[in-house]
Amino acid sequence: MGLKNKNFNHLGSENIEIERKFLIAGDFKSHAYRSDRVVQGYMASSTGGRSVRIRIKGDKGYITIKGGSTDSGLSRFEWEKEISLQDAEQLLQLCDPGVIDKVRYLIKAGKHTYEVDVFHGENEGLVVAEIELDSEDEPFEKPSWLGEEVTGDKRYYNSHLVKSPYKTWKSE
């Protein structure tokens, strides 16, 4: 049974990711205080939005399990653990075909930090900002470089971008 339309209270709030996504409408790089290359693949992803992701960010490895999202696309279960870089490199070899390759920029705005992903490879040209919140209705600062909100649009999920890269969208 997926988590879509389910109450997440029984899972523990520390495992719920509340996130909003936006396209970019201006210069953001001059505001960044850090950037890291991120390479990730998926061992399993389903139409219900559940996925198992292997990620290398900088010099660290991670394994992440994500559940299906709520109807709004704002909230979903997320469990993540750091693993060794060597383990992550080996597990990436077992992932489904396709890889996400991006540079992630961190930008402070008020009390929050935006993560702005500049995609490369098959997703070249796509730039998406994400902000994690403590509640779905939490107010947050919207910098001038922030564009259209795409929260809940599954095309912008990384697990979807592996299967249907941004470069192919014009032909769809």
From TrEMBL:
<feature type="active site" description="Proton acceptor">
    <location>
        <position position="42"/>
    </location>
</feature>
<dbReference type="InterPro" id="IPR012042">
    <property type="entry name" value="NeuTTM/CthTTM-like"/>
</dbReference>
<feature type="domain" description="CYTH">
    <location>
        <begin position="15"/>
        <end position="163"/>
    </location>
</feature>
<dbReference type="Pfam" id="PF01928">
    <property type="entry name" value="CYTH"/>
</dbReference>
<dbReference type="InterPro" id="IPR033469">
    <property type="entry name" value="CYTH-like_dom_sf"/>
</dbReference>
<dbReference type="InterPro" id="IPR023577">
    <property type="entry name" value="CYTH_domain"/>
</dbReference>
<protein>
    <submittedName>
        <fullName>CYTH domain-containing protein</fullName>
    </submittedName>
</protein>
